[in-house]
Design goal:
Chain lengths: 458, 67
């Protein structure tokens, strides 16, 4: 993985408040050759993390100042659901008992590289965010969950914890920091699956309630936040809400990391202002190298957008909503006109069906049937209305959001490429069905564990 | 008092008792798993719903307080 992708590169940012409207933010201090930001460099680039003291110093009805600031900043989660961080912090703060904070760096999304890159290059920003959250919540225990398949990110986080210990910079009330590697299957990153795993159980989603904020790790109120979300929090703690909002739109504030894949000169991870255009992102990546047929935005639980809609497309939830899309995990995968969108959808839907954790009947059977029907469409054996019917049957019937992600993906494919679907349904495979697959899928490396295996009934 | 009928899909093993005892609220999908109308139930219907919940062999049918 390379940092080739940082949209703007920093020379050497001064300590103090950097210009509010400029990039990079998260990737400030990363050197031209993509070098990791060490602990000394981190604090010389970003300055110290202002800590506001233990939670006990606030009255019962007062919120810790950092939570107020996060609310004003409008910071939303970067792990997929765009949930307001301040609301989650408040929910954990209001729950009984000492809290635990968890940085979710498991990144099971095959097309996404941004969390791994952030942890590799700027691990101390993630730790700062985790420390700041722990402080606001009075948490003594802070965990960083990485993916066991990603050794570079895991090593970088572990080294960052060691660097801090060696530098002796932790204040006496700082939480203990521990790096835990989680299994690599897709649903392992779902928050209840992660909590279950951190508690010694299988990395499988659990029924809710209770949600982690009510009863999480060690049955304690638990904040589970994406590593990038926490890195932004580290900057909100330093520079405040006004600074944070100087980039982005009123509804989607700040900058965000995106993983740009597909036919561009320099695919990779870029930091962009939310609401900036897809064209400017493609330009920063050296432009497109082939004609573009459409894009999958938001990851494999996201939405396809056809080429006609890409011109002038702004990258933020409020703009993508018009196309049934959202920023999700920040994946922007361009599809070239050499590929067949029906075949691509079939491959991804099958992989997603295989990622079902096997616990819920509607998910196991429904996703298998949904993937099967797209395969049938691709072969010219479609049953009229079956895709829509299956989507309606599967939606909202799993214990976790996994089936709904697949429904979103499939529904958006039908909307974005109606003629391709109609053509296959009538006439079977096209010339491009056999061309090189474009959307990245792991080469059989991660099978989803199925605890109490429920096989799809075909 | 009203309750929302909900299924715990992890616990559910498609025995189908609930659809027999509460057909006005629960149908079965093509694999035998319940599809539930989540509008709150009350009164006599709630009594039926309670009976259905008690009859579930895996305790997968839940009556939750509306949120
Ligand atoms: C099937 C599934 C997989 C998920 N995988 C991840 C993941 O790999 N990393 C992640 O941060 N969030 C993942 N999430 C979202 C988490 O459940 C959770 O919402 C998120 O970590 C919260 O962080 P945020 O509020 O900072 O976005 C996944 C959700 C689902 C339904
Ligand atoms: S909905 Fe699917 S992925 Fe989620 S817990 Fe149920 S079986 Fe597992």
């Amino acid at each position: 993985m390379s940092a080739a992708g940082t949209a703007t590169r920093t020379q050497r940012a001064p300590v103090g408040t950097p210009p509010a409207g400029s990039l990079p933010r998260l990737l400030a201090g990363v050197s031209e050759d993509g070098g990791r930001v060490s602990v000394t460099r981190h604090f010389s680039v970003h300055g110290g993390l202002p800590l506001t003291g233990a939670r006990r110093s606030w009255g019962r009805r007062e919120h810790p100042p950092l939570i107020e600031e996060t609310h004003r900043a409008g910071l939303r989660g970067r792990g997929g659901a765009a949930f307001p961080l301040a609301r989650k912090l408040l929910a954990v703060a209001a729950a009984r008992g000492p809290a635990v904070v968890v940085a979710n760096g498991t990144e099971g999304e095959p097309a996404s590289e941004k969390d791994a890159m952030l942890m590799e290059l700027a691990p101390h920003l993630v730790l700062d965010g985790l420390v700041a959250a722990a402080e606001a919540l009075g948490a003594r225990e802070a965990l960083i969950a990485t993916c066991e398949l990603d050794e570079d990110a895991t090593d970088s986080m572990a080294l960052a914890v060691e660097e801090r210990d060696a530098a002796g910079i932790a204040p006496h009330h700082a939480p203990s920091l521990r790096v835990v590697t989680a299994p690599g299957h897709y649903v392992a990153g779902q928050e209840t699956a992660l909590v279950s795993y951190l508690d010694g159980g299988p990395a499988l989603p659990t029924f809710t309630p209770p949600l982690p904020f009510e009863r999480g790790v060690g049955r304690r109120p638990t904040l589970v936040s994406n590593v990038e979300t926490l890195a932004h929090l580290a900057l909100v703690a330093r520079h405040g809400a006004g600074w944070f909002r100087a980039l982005g739109t009123p509804a989607s504030t700040g900058s965000t990391l995106v993983t740009l894949a597909g036919p561009v000169a320099r695919p990779g991870v870029y930091e962009i202002a939310l609401g900036s255009s897809l064209e400017s992102l493609a330009r920063a990546a050296g432009g497109t190298t082939r004609e573009v047929r459409g894009a999958l935005i938001g990851g494999y639980a996201g939405a396809f957008v056809p080429a006609e809609s890409l011109r002038g497309l702004a990258l933020s939830d409020e703009h993508l909503a018009a196309h049934g899309g959202r920023m999700g995990s920040g994946v922007v995968a361009l599809l070239s006109s050499d590929c067949c969108p029906v075949a691509e959808t079939a491959r991804v839907a099958r992989w997603m069906a295989e990622q079902s954790s096997g616990q819920c009947g509607p998910c196991v059977n429904g996703l298998d049937a949904l993937a099967g029907e797209i395969e049938a469409v691709a072969r010219g054996r479609a049953t009229d209305g079956r895709l829509e019917q299956l989507s309606a049957t599967v939606a909202r019937r799993g214990a976790c959001g996994h089936p709904d992600g697949v429904v979103s993906l499939v529904g958006s494919a039908l909307e974005a490429f109606p003629s391709a679907f109609a053509h296959h349904a009538r006439g079977g495979p096209c010339d491009r069905c056999a061309s090189v697959p474009e959307l990245p899928l792991p080469a059989g490396r991660v099978a989803s564990p199925r605890s109490r295996t429920r096989r799809a009934r075909r | 008092m009203s309750r929302r009928v909900r299924v715990n899909p992890i616990a559910c093993e498609a025995h189908g008792m609930c659809a027999e005892l509460l057909p006005e609220r629960i149908t079965l999908d093509e694999w035998g798993y319940p599809v539930v109308d989540e509008k709150p139930v009350s009164g006599e219907e709630l009594a039926h719903a309670k009976r259905a919940a008690q009859a579930c062999p895996t305790f997968a049918l839940l009556l939750e307080r509306p949120r």
